[in-house]
Amino acid sequence: MKYLLILLTLTYTSFAQVYTPQPVTGLLGAFAAEVSLVKQSLEDPKTVLIEGIPFTTGLIGNQRVVVAETGIGKVNAAMTTALLLSHFHPRQVLFTGIAGGTNPALQPGDIVIARQTVHHDYQYITFEKQPSIETRNAVTGEKNPAYFKADSVMLARAQAVARSVMFDPIPGTSRPPSVLTGTVVTGDQFISSAQKVAELRQTFNADATEMEGAAVAQVCYQMQVPHLVIRSLSDRADANARTDMLSFYQTAARNSARLVLALVKGL
């Protein structure tokens, strides 16, 4: 019996040494076009379904990654992020895709690297009758910060990499996109109102608005996983947002994917 226990211990030890999980980076996007561009660059891709959602693993350079499409909206984004974290245990998560611009200095085609994200459509009244936009961790009961800060290492790396990426020029111009580090606001609304843009700019000093980033950031924050959100602008979130989105979407998606791929290779 003693020899059997020794053999089992040695076998388990050898198994653990051979099958130690490799570090992986999670790459998420809301739309198929954003995600497919990244998937096309994977070496040795393998796809597995988890609760019906396809997660594709593979290599980008020397980095092992897992890629998934979250779908549109905060609930879909949070669910896919939670599945990613619980099944693949990534050491970091990068979320990318298109957004509406709310900074008047930016044009469709430009890129915002989120220094921080915030829910613009979340608010409650405290027992002291004060409005608050801080979400709460359902497990610990503790308040989350109102603004979810990006991982400083990933942020600095993205800023550095962006200076060397060969982006497609913005449609109708010959200039490459400008890259700005700023605040991205998230809500379950497609914003197409100049009045709402002005409100988001005044209230949050928002540079871009979208429908998933802060949800991804909140899940990562609560599970203590570093994250970064990168958004490529497809419109200015005004009355022309839908039309502009159709004109700039493909270029915005390609440029966003190029930045993500370059960033992952350098991590």
Brief synopsis:
By secondary structure, the chain is of the alpha/beta class. Helices cover about 35% and strands about 25% of the residues.
Describe the protein in words.
This protein has 267 residues and is an alpha/beta fold. Helix content is 37%, strand content 27%. It has a five-stranded mixed beta barrel with strand order 5-11-10-6-12, surrounded by four helices. The chain has a two-stranded antiparallel ribbon with strand order 7-8. A hairpin with a 5-residue loop joins strand 7 (124-125) and strand 8 (131-132). Helix 2 runs parallel beside helix 7 (241-266) and helix 3 runs parallel beside helix 6 (213-222). Residues 2-20 have low confidence and may be disordered.
Architecture blueprint of SSEs:
Blueprint: H1 2-18, E1 25-29, H2 32-39, E2 43-50, E3 53-60, E4 63-69, H3 74-88, E5 92-101, E6 111-119, E7 124-125, E8 131-132, E9 148-149, H4 152-162, E10 179-186, H5 194-204, E11 208-210, H6 213-222, E12 227-235, H7 241-266
Parallel strand pairs: 1-4, 1-5, 5-12, 6-10, 10-11
Antiparallel strand pairs: 2-3, 3-4, 5-11, 6-9, 6-12, 7-8
